[in-house]
Specification:
Elements lengths: L5 H13 L13 E3 L2 E5 L4 E12 L2 E14 L15 E16 L2 E11 L4 E12 L2 E11 L4 E5 L3 E2 L11 E2 L3 E3 L4
Antiparallel strand pairs: 1-3, 2-3, 3-4, 4-5, 5-6, 6-7, 7-8, 8-9, 8-12, 10-11
């Protein structure tokens, strides 16, 4: 078993992401990831980070219990990175689970799970999803943020068991909730 020190892991991750289009918001800035553990599997083209995962790029920060990065392999002649060298892998999807928190400036999103789809340029928060812009908050079962359009969609979820006004055995769907604070 080969032992790798923390600085070489961070450098390897830095090199892996520097050439990728993962850039959620911050363009070509380097991505720094810290975690308690990292596991890479070539067979599934994935890298899993576990334990207090903290990823940063520019003013974007993602924290979660676990982060899985799925990538695709490219032909060496297809693309070149910032250094002019061939890019051999591109991030396809990023999945975070457990205590997910993503921040950018005054915007904060939280959920049980976050999926970033690289080609579609979408961030999808699911499972008790909430987003704050300054002091205003919206919540629902699912929030989809379209990065290039700067717009989001929030939806309720499956019916949840309720007590009170509903008849026995009747289920009421969860709803979108928004709080807008006035000056």
């Amino acid at each position: 078993m080969k032992i790798i020190n923390r600085s070489s892991i961070i450098f390897s991750i830095f090199c892996f992401f520097l050439a990728s289009p993962l850039s959620l918001y911050a363009g070509d800035e380097p991505i720094h990831i810290e975690a308690n553990r990292m596991s890479s599997t070539e067979r599934t083209n994935s890298v899993v980070f576990t334990g207090q995962v903290d990823a940063r790029q520019g003013d974007v920060r993602i924290r979660s219990d676990e982060m899985t990065v799925y990538y695709t392999l490219n032909d060496k002649d297809q693309e070149t990175g910032n250094d002019g060298k061939p890019v051999t892998q591109q991030v396809d999807k990023l999945v975070c689970t457990g205590n997910v928190e993503i921040t950018r400036g005054e915007w904060l999103g939280t959920s049980k799970k976050m999926t970033y789809l690289s080609r579609e340029r979408q961030v999808i928060l699911t499972g008790n999803a909430k987003a704050w812009q300054n002091r205003n908050m919206v919540s629902g079962e699912k929030i989809v943020y379209y990065l290039d359009e700067g717009r989001s969609e929030v939806s309720g979820g499956k019916p949840a068991a309720t007590v009170g006004e509903t008849r026995a055995g009747e289920e009421k769907p969860t709803r979108v909730n928004m709080t807008i604070l006035q000056k």
